[in-house]
């Protein structure tokens, strides 16, 4: 097998969503799912193009409540390119028989190829070859070429190239029924082989302009008018504009169509306005072949810096795929943007395109190779410091309280309600209590500093981020009997959001939060030693020092307790639930549908207590715990790992990554099953339909880091 090629044969409706996500092409500025050009959104296909940082906010009615959600916008679809044979129907999904079809993603060059033979209702067979790219050289350009060959018919071949702004954010089934129409059409134009479409987002009022230049070659002679364009008022009102042309062909003729597209928004730099910028760019852009040469060279430069190798060809293919998608989301073009790293990439609409803590898993790979990218991602957080400071003050604290889900302006985007598809009920969502996202920001700051040794970064905005996060955690901690406690939070586990019988949400003294807070205070003190204490009071330094030495961490039965009171929870009958449900990854949904709650049990969705071991290693955790005055040794570490291994259902793709990483250090032979699961999570969609809604970027990056660690001497 060629580890640089991902190939899908045939048409498999149940797999199309997964294939579309995994064959997404992007360049950090925007990305387009691998949907076939003639498709529109339905139960099988979901064409989607997403621009980094382009969000819009709408209000929906949910369970009697008005709910506001901000989404990464599905912008107008630039792909539509189809044909019809001699007065027949336009080629579209379901409208003709697919005789053969193959999609091939060339990860080395960033090109998606499609080979197709189709037969229409009159028995006419047409062969087609398509190639697609989203330029890594020029982040505003994309291109599609299609060669059409009539195999057994003569007549008129008509070609239609369109820009479609009628799209909605309908790519996630559980969000359907909520407000999803983010685009407002403004105008469309068609002239001289160029079609243009201008739309605006409904509430954020971001203008999105696309221009497409379509050319064709081949065939015997033109029919009628050489080319015509549909830009009538009705089409423009609907947000659609098209270019149509016709040519006379005989069996065996080849007709090649090229579609070059430019995409700009009103948020872009160095433009007068988006519509003119798109028009100018598409007119000046070269042919598909010239774009491809520059695009392939750009990818070659990336791969020279980003290769991770494996001995097995199948493993190498998956590593290449995961690196490919990481680089498409966090490309060097991100250095010029104000955008975070969405947890599901620019590959779909799951999590509404929000930024969580998943960049925590990408920084170890990106920071040493692409420090400009990690610096830009940290700038995204820094620009939102005012909002994080305000959130902390509004909650009665100091410092910066970063949101669990972040979008355009840094306010908390976590919904108040979430839907359980198993029970059909809308439930309170308390995951905004995962304040450990601030610890992830701080860890990323330190990762960037360690990779670059840039003390000016620490003396500047990086140090400001670190300090403001430390101030927040210092302000939410209380000193109780000589130990610092943090109450009312959620840990990474996510299944526990409160105590049985207690009305107030949140948990007390989550081990991950408290251990990483002690780590944070040490790093802040290190920063002060490196760049000075300007702006930091003696009282603050004393508090940071005290918390670095006296944070509270609970233990039971010789292991770290996930949180205070964890030992009093009930044990779950794991065997009974596995026998009844087989797949219990989403045990929270199962229990809620039964009228129960995971808050009653010693169960975890994903690694929680083991997260510090993953981030800091056993030695690092030992340094923290012994520095806090607790007993800690290798036997306790092994016992803690085994304890939580038996009580985790791995309902997140990150769980296998963390468990594989921890076991690789402590007990290498035991890590293999988790490594295999982590490796296959997205490419085989082990979570059951979730990858189709967008890749799991943190898990992909985490897998790459696992194999990179294995390769080190």
What's the short version?
This protein is an alpha+beta fold and about 725 residues long.
Which keywords apply here?
alpha+beta; 713 residues; 23 strands; nine-stranded antiparallel beta sheet
Describe the structure.
This protein is α+β, with helices and mostly antiparallel strands and 713 residues long. It has a nine-stranded antiparallel beta sheet. The chain has a four-stranded antiparallel beta sheet with strand order 2-3-4-5, with helices on one face. Strands 6-11-16-15 form a four-stranded antiparallel beta sheet. Strand 9 and strand 10 form a beta hairpin. Helix 5 crosses helix 20 and helix 6 crosses helix 7 (371-383). The protein is globular and about 90 Å long. The model is unreliable at 223-229 (pLDDT under 50).
Q: Structural class of the helices, strands and pairings?
A: alpha+beta
Helix count, DSSP H or I runs of 4 or more residues: 20
The parts where pLDDT drops under 50 for at least 5 residues are: 223-229
For the sheet with most strands, the description reads: 9 strands, antiparallel
Rg result: 27 Å
Helicity, as a percent range: 25-40%
Spatial sequence of strands, sheet with the most strands? 1-7-8-9-10-17-14-13-12
Shape by Cα distribution: globular
- State mean pLDDT (0 to 100 scale): 95
User: What is the CA-CA span between the terminal residues?
Assistant: 28 Å
Instruction: Indicate the proportion of strand residues.
Output: 15-25%
Beta strands, count: 23
């Amino acid at each position: 097998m060629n580890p640089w090629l991902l190939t899908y044969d045939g048409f498999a409706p149940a797999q199309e969503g997964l294939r579309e996500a995994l064959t997404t092409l992007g360049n950090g500025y925007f990305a387009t799912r691998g949907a076939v050009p003639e498709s529109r959104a339905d139960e099988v296909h979901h064409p989607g193009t997403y621009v980094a940082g382009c969000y819009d906010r709408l209000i929906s009615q949910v369970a009697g409540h008005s709910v506001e959600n901000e989404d990464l916008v599905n912008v107008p679809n630039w792909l539509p390119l189809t044909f019809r044979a001699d007065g027949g129907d336009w080629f579209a999904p379901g409208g003709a028989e697919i005789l053969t079809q193959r999609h091939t993603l060339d990860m080395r060059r960033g090109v998606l190829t499609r080979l197709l033979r189709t037969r229409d209702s009159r028995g006419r067979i047409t062969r087609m070859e398509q190639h697609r790219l989203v330029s890594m050289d020029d982040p505003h350009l994309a291109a599609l070429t299609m060669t059409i060959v009539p195999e057994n018919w003569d007549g008129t071949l008509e070609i239609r190239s369109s820009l479609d702004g009628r799209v909605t954010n309908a790519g996630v089934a559980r969000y359907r029924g909520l407000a999803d129409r983010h685009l407002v059409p403004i105008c469309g134009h068609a002239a001289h082989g160029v079609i243009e479409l201008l739309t605006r987002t409904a509430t954020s009022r971001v203008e999105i302009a696309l221009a497409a230049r379509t050319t064709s070659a081949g065939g015997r002679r033109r029919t009628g008018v050489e080319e015509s364009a549909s830009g009538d008022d009705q089409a423009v009102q609907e947000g659609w504009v098209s270019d149509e042309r016709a040519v006379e062909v005989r069996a065996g003729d080849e007709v090649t169509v090229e579609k070059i597209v430019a995409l700009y928004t009103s948020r872009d730099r160095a433009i007068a306005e988006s519509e003119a910028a798109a028009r100018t760019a598409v007119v000046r852009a070269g042919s598909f072949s010239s774009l491809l040469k520059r695009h392939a060279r750009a990818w070659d430069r990336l791969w020279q810096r980003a290769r991770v190798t494996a001995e097995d060809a199948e493993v190498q293919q998956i590593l290449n795929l995961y690196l490919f998608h990481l680089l498409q989301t966090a490309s060097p073009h991100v250095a010029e943007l104000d955008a975070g790293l969405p947890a599901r990439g620019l590959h779909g609409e799951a999590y509404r395109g929000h930024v969580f803590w998943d960049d925590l898993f990408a920084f170890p790979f990106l920071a040493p190779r692409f420090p400009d990218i990690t610096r830009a991602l940290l700038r995204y957080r820094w620009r939102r410091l005012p909002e994080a400071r305000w959130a902390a003050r509004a909650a009665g604290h100091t410092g910066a309280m970063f949101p669990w889900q972040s979008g355009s302006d840094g306010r908390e985007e976590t919904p108040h309600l979430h839907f359980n598809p198993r029970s059909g009920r809308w439930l309170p969502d308390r995951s905004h209590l995962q304040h450990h996202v601030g610890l992830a920001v701080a860890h990323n700051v330190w990762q960037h500093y360690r990779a670059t040794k840039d003390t000016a970064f620490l003396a500047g905005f990086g140090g400001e981020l670190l300090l403001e996060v430390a101030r927040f955690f210092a302000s939410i901690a209380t000193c109780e009997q000589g130990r610092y406690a943090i109450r009312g939070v959620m840990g990474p586990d996510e299944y526990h959001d409160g105590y049985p019988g207690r009305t107030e949400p949140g948990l007390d003294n989550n081990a991950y939060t408290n251990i990483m807070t002690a780590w944070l205070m040490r790093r802040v003190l290190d920063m002060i030693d490196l760049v000075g204490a300007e702006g930091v009071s003696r009282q603050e330094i004393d508090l940071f020092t005290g918390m670095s030495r006296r944070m509270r961490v609970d233990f039971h039965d010789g292991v770290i307790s996930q949180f205070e009171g964890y030992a009093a929870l009930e044990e779950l009958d794991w065997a009974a639930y596995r026998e009844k449900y087989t797949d219990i990854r989403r045990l929270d949904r199962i229990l809620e549908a039964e009228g129960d709650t995971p808050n009653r049990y010693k169960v975890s969705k994903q690694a929680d207590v083991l997260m510090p071991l993953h981030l800091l290693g056993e030695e690092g955790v030992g340094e923290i715990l012994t520095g806090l005055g607790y007993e800690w040794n290798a036997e306790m570490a092994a016992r803690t790992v085994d304890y939580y291994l038996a009580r985790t259902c791995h309902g997140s793709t990150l769980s296998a990554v963390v468990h594989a990483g921890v076991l690789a250090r402590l007990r290498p032979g035991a890590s293999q099953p988790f490594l295999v699961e982590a490796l296959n999570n997205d490419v085989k969609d082990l979570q059951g339909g979730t990858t189709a809604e967008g890749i799991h970027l943190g898990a992909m990056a985490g897998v790459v880091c696992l194999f990179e660690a294995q390769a080190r001497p």
